[in-house]
Amino acid sequence: MPYVITEPCIGVKDTACQAVCPVDCIYDVGEMLVINPDECIDCGLCEPECPVSAIFVDTDVPEQWKSFIERNAEQGRKAAESK
Ligand code: SF4
Ligand code: SF4
Q1: Is 16 in the pocket of ligand 2 (CB under 6 A)?
Q2: What is the pTM of this model?
């Protein structure tokens, strides 16, 4: 169950989550940061670091932000490939 970054990150992007991720699976994709689900080890360290509570485990993403699950997967995988 990977973690997912959602809408509140847009415009904030303070990178606090990126700083604590032990496997470097959080990527800056321009408008926001995203998590590559293939690399995330579900440690949960990023979640409490977010000042705007944008990070959720995928099963707990609020209904209105469900589309971010696919967005993190698509953009996160693409960013990981070009690492
Ligand atoms: S849950 Fe852990 S591995 Fe996954 S993105 Fe957050 S800090 Fe990184
Ligand atoms: S900590 Fe939250 S607001 Fe900051 S970059 Fe990560 S997801 Fe975005």
Answers
A1: yes
A2: 0.98
